[in-house]
UniProtKB/TrEMBL annotation, chain A:
This is Spermidine/putrescine transport system permease protein. The keyword Iron does not apply. Residues 60-246 form the ABC transmembrane type-1 domain. It is a multi-pass membrane protein. Keywords: Cell membrane, Membrane, Transmembrane, Transmembrane helix, Transport. Its main location: membrane. Belongs to the binding-protein-dependent transport system permease family. CysTW subfamily. The keyword Membrane applies. GO terms for cellular component: plasma membrane.
Automatic annotation (TrEMBL), chain B:
This is Spermidine/putrescine transport system permease protein. InterPro entries: MetI-like (IPR000515), MetI-like_sf (IPR035906). PANTHER family: INNER MEMBRANE ABC TRANSPORTER PERMEASE PROTEIN YDCU-RELATED, INNER MEMBRANE ABC TRANSPORTER PERMEASE PROTEIN YDCU-RELATED-RELATED. GO terms for cellular component: plasma membrane. The chain crosses the membrane at residues 21-49, 86-105, 117-141, 161-188, 209-231, 265-285. Keywords: Cell membrane, Membrane, Transmembrane, Transmembrane helix, Transport. It is found in: Cell membrane. Belongs to the binding-protein-dependent transport system permease family. CysTW subfamily. GO terms for biological process: transmembrane transport. Its main location: membrane. Residues 80-286 form the ABC transmembrane type-1 domain.
From TrEMBL, chain C:
It holds the Pfam family TOBE_2. The keyword Nucleotide-binding applies. The lineage of its organism: Bacteria, Bacillati, Actinomycetota, Actinomycetes, Streptosporangiales. InterPro entries: AAA+_ATPase, ABC_SmlMolc_Importer, ABC_transporter-like_ATP-bd, ABC_transporter-like_CS, Mo/tungstate-bd_C_term_dom, P-loop_NTPase, Transp-assoc_OB_typ2. Keywords: ATP-binding, Nucleotide-binding, Transport. GO terms for cellular component: ATP-binding cassette (ABC) transporter complex. The keyword Ion transport does not apply. GO terms for molecular function: ATP binding; ATP hydrolysis activity; transmembrane transporter activity. This is Spermidine/putrescine transport system ATP-binding protein/putrescine transport system ATP-binding protein. Residues 2-232 form the ABC transporter domain.
Amino acid sequence: MRRPRLMYVPFWMTYVFLYTPIVVLVVMSFNSDDSPYTFGGFSLKWYGELASDANVREGLINTLIVAVGSTVLATALGTLLAVGLARHSRSRLLDAISVMPAVLPDLVLGIGLLVFYATIKATLGLYSVVLAHTVFGMAFVTAVVRTRLANSDTSLEEASRDLGATPFTTFFRITLPQLAPGIVAGALLAFTLSIDEFVIASFTAAPLEPTLPIVIYSMVRFGVTPEINALATLLLAVSFTVVIAAQRMTRLTESLS
Amino acid sequence: MARSTVSGAPVKSQARRSRALGRLVFLGPGLTYLIVLLLVPLALLLSYIPFRRGRFGGIVYELTGENFTRLIDPLYLDVVLGSLKIATIATVIALLVGYPTAYLIAQLPRKWKTIALVAIVLPFWTNFLVRIYAWIILLSGPGLVNSTLMDLGLIDKPLELLYNQGTIITGLIYSYLPLMVLPLYAAIEKLDPQLREASANLGARPARTFLSVTLPLTLPGVITGCLFVFVPSFGNFVVPELLGGGRSIMVGNLIRDQFLKARDWPFGATLSLALIAVLIVLLLLQAWSARRA
Amino acid sequence: MLQITGVSRRFGDITALSEVSLEIRQGEFFALLGPSGCGKTTLLRILAGFEAPDEGTVTLDGEDLLRQAAHRRPVNLMFQSYALFPHMTVAKNVAYGLEREKLAGAEIRRRVGEVLEKVGLDTMAGRKPQQLSGGQRQRVALARAIVKRPRLLLLDEPLSALDKKVRAEMQLELKRLQNEVGITFVVVTHDQEEAMSLADRIAVFSEGRVQQVDAPVELYERPRTPFVAGFVGANNLFEGRACSVGLASDGLGVLPGVSTLPDGTPALLAVRPERLRLDGQGVLRGDVVDVSFYGGVSHVSVRVAGRSTPVLVATQGATQVQAGSPVALSWSAGDGVLIPQ
């Protein structure tokens, strides 16, 4: 069938719409002018200012701690849960609970956890953000690993059992290696999502230990500064690298849709 | 016969025990985690609904329906309805732009298809705040949009593009458009192209084929896409705060303020029911359309 | 009358159709027969309007068909996959084409009822396609196409998705329907038995070219190209040069046949297995390699010195010969067909 000409208008509009702001950010991050609106020539001065900004550095360290911690937890829990749901359960309720953190509005999860921490009288800190981010990170790891499991051959596991391996030997020697690409992709996903996450962090972080998105939020609210452009460009570079790596490792777009 | 039943029984119970152990090891940790850090917090949150805020913050445990009465107070109801309106407009525009985009991607040759899809997903994995910030630069008085329009001679002085409802809607569409395109693409890709040919063969013009065949058969994708855009738009507080300039607030801002500023948790919990209700309605709609297809 | 003249279609380096010309008469049951990838489906898609040829013309009763958009052509197609709309009931599927003609509701209901009765599905009108069996779906697809009363009905491998028993039933059904409605049918198939039993005339396709157009009996008894001789039914082919009494073969001597070719032309001699006799005077001598009994017929493979592939002989019922025994083969000159190479 022929492709209707008229459809190319929204098609290209979509890509222009998605990429114009990104291009502007990147170009302006190399601006030598102090104005965030007019380009005065190439310079790296905003990257220099960024490097010497103590708030940003502290936020970055906090974010990395949170992202690494929650990714490790989410990957371990999510992988086990995915195998459990695919091989040891037929409950649709459990399926629904496992994806719930991914569909639940982040605001609801954030205030729920705020209330929870307050009820058990926990002092907030980086750990409380780690635990919070693990909740949704785990949902994504579970989903990605399950797609991988659905496409994998159960007869391999049966063959292993038939040859005398215990369920646990089978899991470590057969299932896990087969799932490895899915697990890595799920972990990368959880990591990127945690690095960028703002809403839940804003409810569960201690005021004196903000994550990077919280720092960015206060910078943006305070006013427009080209320093954000430089930070944005760096974050873009990291995200793009991670996403393209994940895309190569598994067919990410397919497992998401 | 008798011997085999005797020796069969322990084998059977051993198998059952190993299955139970498998369940415990694989399902146990994840489910425990989700119960403690997802279900319990949600239950706690909702349990505040029938109570009232104390004079100096805190909760007065005395059953009351006043949170619901406040919910229909025009002061708050307008915010909820306004948020519904903004989220609806953003969803509809995202659908109108996203559908043709997804449709064309599905028709592309294999290699270009992957590139086009990755290009849709990429911006989504970049920091949400940074993407919103980019729009402040673009739309502000001396920003790129105004200066381009002035250079083209279309306007004499900069337009007020920031800090209104249109800006919020733009920001929401920009944030969630990829989530509209992906499920639409999946649904359109699955559609057998011969069904469209059959429709044309039976005398249907392209527009009729779209309305009678393509659209009904991709409806589950449409609803999933709308769910993915509507839910985070409706409960958003970052976009209205940064792009709305504090002049127009949405239900998300209202909820956040109950928890971080007003310290009225019972009312905040009641307001968050609106978000959950919208989510449930859309999920039911999605399940219904998936069953129909 | 459908007139196809000089139609060619290339996809990149692949030539799907090469200067195809055919004339299909009003009310005819016509088959396009060939192995998969021979271009027959491309021709069908050109007739339906889903593909455009690079060269050539197609006219239906004198009107240029190629200038009309797919949805305006008086041509309907029954898809190989049936392409039934899964979200519509049987009745809705069948009514779809009539609704496009903006007919009155009562008229549509009447014609849908009629056609469903004709294909024996009047009790299934309210069902969805996925609730039907393969044979029933096929009938819905057929009903949906003929209810429009097209001037030309195209059928893409109409019976290929059905199991053996249903296929025989539908074969009769198709013939009966074609008789009743009097529409020109063009069926695409790779199954030569299907083509021979259904069609009035058959066009055999190979590598984008028409090899031969003939009635089934002619095609079977008088193949005109080596491809047709090999593709349509089982055949024994001998290589050599034409001579006045048949074929002069290099290793096997002179084999009897009817020749219209100039003497000395390189040629193939084709003899059908059922025309060979085991009890004859013996044009060829050999040993039986294998005997297979099929009930109605038996197949005897005979190895003949000077020839690499065994000669196949079909006999009525069971046969007395056994593997290993020497036999003599003969046939009448009238059953040997000479084909230029």
